[in-house]
Specification:
The chain is α+β, with helices and mostly antiparallel strands and about 90 residues long. The protein has a single domain, classed as NE1680-like fold. It is about 25% helix and about 30% strand. The protein is built from three helices and four strands, in the order ββαβαβα. A four-stranded antiparallel beta sheet has the order 3-1-2-4, with helices on one face. It is globular and about 30 Å long.
Length: about 90
């Protein structure tokens, strides 16, 4: 499955994967608010056997197939508090 990976400006280590052809305008409002500006990092042909640095490829593929996007959290789940509660 082809996808595009974006770096999220709101926190270091936060990345958003979008299925090829997925319209970012249809992302949930809360997700957009919490990720900030998206900067394209790379395009990838993702296969189940492919190794990813911080995510399981099968899990990513399942999320891309079911809803069109996957949010990769920073290492060890270190999400900044303002992403939970707003600014």
């Amino acid at each position: 499955m082809n996808c595009t990976i974006f770096r999220c400006t709101r926190q270091t280590g936060l990345y958003l994967y979008l299925r090829a052809g997925f319209d970012p305008a249809t992302l949930p409002t809360e997700l957009v608010r919490r990720t900030g500006t998206l900067t394209e990092v790379m395009q990838l042909d993702l296969q189940p056997q492919r190794r990813l640095a911080r995510a399981d490829a099968r899990t990513v593929l399942e999320r891309l197939d079911s809803c069109g996007w996957y949010l990769q959290l920073p290492p060890d789940g270190q999400v900044q508090a303002h992403l939970y509660f707003g600014d």
